[in-house]
Amino acid sequence: MNTSPQDIGSIQKSDFVVLNGRPLKVVEITHSKPGKHGHAKVHLVGIDIFTGRRYEDVRPGGHMIQVPIVGKKDYLIVNIDSDGYVTLLNEGTCNIRSDIKLNNDADVTRRLLDKYHEGDGQIKVTVLKALGEEQIMAFKMID
User: Fold this and answer.
1) What's the chain's Rg over C-alpha atoms?
2) Same domain for 80 and 136?
3) Which of 1, 17, 88, 110, CA to CA, is 20 to 30 A from 35?
4) How many domains does the chain have?
5) Which residue ranges does the record assign to the Translation initiation factor 5A C-terminal domain (predicted)?
6) What is the pTM of this model?
7) Does residue 89 carry a pLDDT above 70?
8) 16 lies in which domain range?
9) CATH number, residue 41
């Protein structure tokens, strides 16, 4: 199960929601009062957590919206190959994985590659997972 239903009225800024099948972080939410002919409306603005694309939607208040189950995990970088695939080490279990490809459009990728090519120490990355998709979202140097 990648999502769970939640009342749209309880969604707040910086919560995660699913719109158009994409996991979004809510950056703006406004509630309108009920009109003469209908429900209160909820206006959502969200940014896709993987692509950075902006989405907007208006939904009736009191309805349900899907909320993605978002996971975060830290890994150490072992290698980055020429195709952009990253070999990662899970410190806790000593498992290695090589199935995450760098997002060439992301600013974090450019900064990460610069640090990797400098070769000064270990790099720890944070991988975000939602709706079956995974991407490196942040990194830090460790001594």
Assistant:
1) 19
2) yes
3) 17
4) 2
5) 69-140
6) 0.82
7) yes
8) 3-68
9) 2.30.30.30
pLDDT over 70 (residue 122): yes
Looking at 51, 68, 85, the residue that finishes a domain is 68
Residue where a domain stops, chosen among 68, 93, 110: 68
Same domain, 76 and 136: yes
**SS3 assignment for the chain:** CCEEEEEHHHCCCCCEEEECCEEEEEEEEEECCCCCCCCCEEEEEEEECCCCCEEEEEEECCCEEEEECCEEEEEEEEEECCCCEEEEEECCCCEEEEEEECCCCCHHHHHHHHHHHHCCCEEEEEEEEECCEEEEEEEEEEC
> How do beta strands 122-130 and 133-142 pair?
antiparallel
CA distances to 12, 52, 123, 136 from 107, in Å: 27, 11, 16, 11
